[in-house]
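Working notes for the structural subgroup meeting. M.R. asked for a predicted model of this chain before we commit to crystallization trials. I am recording the input and output together here so anyone reviewing the notebook later can reproduce the run.

Input as submitted:
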Amino acid sequence: MILVVSEKFGSADVYAQNAKSILNKASGFIKAYDFTLNPYRGCQYGCSYCYAAAFSPNEKMRDEWGKWVLIKENAAEVLEKELLKWEKKNPSKAPSIYMSSVTDPYQPIESKTQLTRRLLEVMLEYKPILVIQTRSPMITRDIDILQRFKHLRINMSIPTGSEKIRKDFEPQTPSIKARLNAMKKIKTTINDLTGYLPKLSITITPLLPTLPEEQENFIRQLNFVDRVVIQEFHASHKRSLIASTRNEAIDMKKKYSWWYNNENKNYQNFKSQLVEILSDVEIKEGQAGFTYE
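Returned structure, recorded in token form:
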């Protein structure tokens, strides 16, 4: 596949391509869904630990994860056709869709393309069971549409409660405070008069270190959501097309040996704190936490 840079957006090379399909059969970790929906390939956030880098178009782009993004220009038109086809085959069953599995639907380029917003507008008519996975406060831009989905869960990724550690593992991402504020805005803006209140999750996945003195305060700030999900790092693999933890994150783990030398113990302690402090919040681990219910 030959790709030609169409523009620069920030520090990222931007590519554009038409997609043959936009709804992909869900499998593996999120096999509970009918489809995954990824408006983009690549992700400008470029998190050091992101398993999705393994699915880059080529080795060079895999090595430059975070420095490029590919826009699926015709995604909305293709989605309309595919949902219509689903509806004809399954007139009494709404499709379940996970957006997104290998990109962030609200990464910076979305502010320009509004592709994710157009996809939401298309989906509304077909009333899907929808889960949106993001780490971007930009999602609040679409509250006017989100509140019209009867079956929606929003997962906000916040892998650590420490800004210092966030900047080491995922320096190109929005702050922890901005992400929490975005979720609080969704909760306080949407009500029974404006529409349907979505289910809200904080996904601490993978669980990165949080400085001991900041753990309790961070956990207490999560008391307004209905679910918190935790998960350890993916196992590491040398093969390219398989989800695994990247070398950048493995190297970063050495810097935080105080946590990773006793990773299982620290994981269990953090989980225990979640259960103790967030008594009214559902605490789930790994795959079980990524369901819609």
